UniProtKB/TrEMBL annotation:
Pfam families: AHSA1
Domain Activator of Hsp90 ATPase homologue 1/2-like C-terminal per the UniProt entry, residue ranges: 10-132
Family: Belongs to the AHA1 family.
Protein name: SRPBCC domain-containing protein
Length: 134
């Protein structure tokens, strides 16, 4: 299991909204600056599907990051299962006027765990920069 984490200086309501609304996800869901999130579908409920269309800026490569939500606890927990059956969860821990976000997920076997951890840490760091600048 890989774990990434960051503390966001914002209210839990704002953090939850920016983490789950497609119009915001497209702006922070970036692991490498040569890629971007072209589109987002997000049906935030147990059994609901999510799909992030990832595209290389030169349009030479793309992939879909998609899965199904398996558990939702409003303002505190999101658990999911990806199409390849890997699982993950994102927890939101409120502490006064800040929220610690922790994401745990099963890595793919094709890429090194350290590289996957770096990519996901970059995404969560981008989320922090995006929301705190808003």
């Amino acid at each position: 299991m890989i774990t990434v984490q960051n503390t966001i200086h914002a209210s839990i309501d704002k953090v939850w909204q920016f983490w789950t609304l497609p119009k915001h996800i497209q702006n922070w869901n970036i692991a490498i600056d040569t890629w971007y999130t072209a589109s987002v579908e997000n049906d935030l409920k147990v059994g609901g599907k999510f799909k992030y269309k990832m595209l290389k800026k030169d349009k030479s490569l793309s992939f879909d990051f998609e899965g199904i939500y398996t558990k939702i606890e409003n303002l505190s927990l999101i658990e999911y299962k990806l199409l390849d059956n890997r699982t993950g969860k994102v927890s939101f821990e409120k502490n006064e006027n800040q929220v610690t976000i922790t994401e745990d997920f099963e890595p793919v076997k094709e890429d090194s765990e350290s590289m996957q951890q770096e990519w996901c840490q970059t995404v969560i760091d981008n989320f922090k920069k995006y929301i705190e600048a808003f």
